């Protein structure tokens, strides 16, 4: 380890870090944190409103108020001790804690002439340069979610980093995919103590062997070749696992609301969507892989035919791709209608009834009475009983928003999250910090949840070519 690696660090936080994660001031272990005055001013300007950002700002203000409670000017100048586990010891054998410093005086102007003005970003850069001059024995590092600010910092020779503490994974390619391919010699290596039986028309196997330790509950297993297999892990018992052969929904006789699976992943998805023992299902996939169609078909079958759920609730984050269309008149459902084009398109496929205009009108009235469209803005405080909840475009949710929604589920409710982590429209959210990524990773070991990543587009040859070529 180099001598430079032992130098104490002083992190200067940008406003957007605190707006993104109010607990960021507690996430830097034994290192010190510095808040420029311009950051406090920006927090003050952002505290009003009912948005997620405004709530985060108010929470940051409460944290800072608690830390400053009872502290005088001398204590603030010396740095407020940050709570949390003490990590390591200093040279005197005392436990080390990080400290929080505020800008309590004007710092000398260190910015070059090509960055003039009173722009908040430039003020932060000037503060970092001044701190580097005053603390040559420290590594002064700026933390910001703003890519352009980090670029400007690098141009000035300032060490700048993104805020990584909220990342679920280091790389989205490490995200749990929900399925695993079995090796060709699987039956030979695992047949020694294998048991098999049938129960209510389903075939089960109890398997023990080297591969079972890495399986998760409700993980999908498959084997290619002549002795092909498609199964799902039903239970883990120490070193044993119980797997069940899945239903084949590719056969038209076993279609769900007239929809048949077109590939292996869609078949796995329908098995999890149609299983009332699985309370939480997440489907990832690019455009055209059938996420919404499969989910709606399973919901209609279990709501209208099997009466497992009382109604279907559809919701999504209202983040526009282009310019916003402004305020909309009408009720909550009418305001949400423009965002529900995917729902309407798929309902059109699922309700191709005979009987002319009268038959279509009767079907539309029936579906409208059992499908509700709700806005995420009004979910807080609600409890849904015996509902089939579809959360579309879930990749645009933060982990906190995802928790708020999932904890609305009451007895008998199933939640299905759909999304594509490559299409995130929410500012400062990335593939590794999305609430959908967070939920997939945290739910993978729970026995009443299931996940599958849909790989192949089934929309049209035009859409498939466009996905690859454009």
UniProtKB/TrEMBL annotation:
Q: Report keywords, A-Z.
A: ATP-binding, Nucleotide-binding
**Listed GO MF terms:** ATP binding
Please indicate if the UniProt record lists ATP-binding as a keyword: yes
- What Pfam families does its record include? PhoH, PIN_4
From which domain of life does this come?
Answer: Bacteria
The record, for InterPro entries, names: P-loop_NTPase, PhoH, PhoH2-like, PIN-like_dom_sf, PIN_dom
Output the Gene Ontology cellular-component terms: cytosol
- SMART domains to which the protein is assigned, alphabetical: PINc
Is Nucleotide-binding one of the keywords? yes
Domain PIN: start-end pairs:
9-151
UniProt lists the family membership as follows:
Belongs to the PhoH family. In the N-terminal section; belongs to the PINc/VapC protein family.
- The name on file for this protein is Phosphate starvation-inducible protein PhoH
Tell me the organism. Answer: Candidatus Sedimenticola endophacoides
């Amino acid at each position: 380890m180099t001598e430079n690696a032992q130098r104490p660090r002083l992190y200067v936080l940008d406003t957007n870090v605190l707006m993104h994660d109010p607990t960021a001031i507690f996430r830097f272990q034994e290192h010190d944190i510095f808040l420029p005055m311009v950051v406090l001013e920006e927090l003050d300007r952002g505290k009003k409103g009912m948005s997620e950002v405004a709530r985060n700002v108010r929470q940051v203000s409460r944290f800072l108020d608690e830390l400053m409670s009872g502290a005088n000017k001398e204590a603030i100048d010396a740095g407020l001790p940050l709570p949390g586990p003490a990590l390591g010891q200093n040279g005197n054998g005392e436990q080390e804690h990080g400290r929080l410093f505020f800008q309590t005086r004007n710092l000398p102007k260190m910015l070059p002439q090509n960055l003039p003005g009173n722009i908040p970003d430039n003020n932060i850069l000037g503060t970092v340069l001044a701190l580097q001059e005053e603390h040559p024995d420290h590594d002064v590092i700026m933390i910001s979610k703003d890519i352009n600010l980090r670029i400007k910092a690098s141009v000035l020779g300032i060490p700048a980093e993104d805020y990584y503490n909220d990342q679920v994974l280091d790389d989205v390619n490490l995200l749990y995919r929900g399925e695993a391919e079995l090796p060709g010699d699987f039956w030979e290596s695992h047949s020694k103590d294998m048991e098999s039986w049938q129960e209510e028309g389903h075939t089960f196997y109890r398997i023990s062997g080297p591969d079972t330790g890495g399986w998760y509950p409700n993980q999908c297993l498959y084997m290619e070749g002549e002795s092909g297999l498609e199964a799902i892990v039903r239970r883990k018992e120490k070193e044993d696992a119980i797997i069940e052969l899945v239903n084949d929904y590719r056969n038209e006789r076993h279609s769900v609301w007239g929809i048949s699976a077109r590939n292996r992943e869609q078949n796995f998805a329908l098995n999890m969507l149609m299983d009332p023992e699985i309370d939480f299902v997440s489907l990832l996939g690019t455009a055209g892989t059938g996420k919404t169609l499969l989910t709606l078909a399973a919901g209609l079958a279990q709501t209208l035919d099997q009466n497992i759920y009382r109604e279907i609730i559809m919701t999504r984050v209202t983040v526009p791709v282009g310019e916003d269309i402004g305020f909309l008149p009408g009720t909550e459902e009418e305001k949400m209608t423009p965002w529900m084009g995917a729902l309407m398109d798929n309902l059109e496929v699922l309700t191709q009834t005979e009987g002319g205009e009268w038959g279509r009108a009767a079907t539309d009235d029936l579906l409208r009475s059992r499908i509700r469209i709700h806005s995420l803005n009004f979910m807080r405080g609600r409890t849904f009983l015996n509902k089939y909840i579809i959360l579309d475009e879930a990749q645009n949710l933060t982990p906190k928003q995802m928790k708020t929604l999932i904890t609305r589920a009451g007895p008998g409710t199933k939640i299905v999250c759909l999304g594509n982590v490559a299409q995130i429209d929410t500012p400062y959210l990335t593939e590794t910090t999305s609430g959908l990524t967070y939920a997939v990773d945290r739910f993978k070991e729970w026995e009443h949840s299931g996940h599958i990543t849909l790989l192949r587009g089934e929309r049209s040859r035009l859409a498939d070519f466009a996905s690859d070529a454009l």
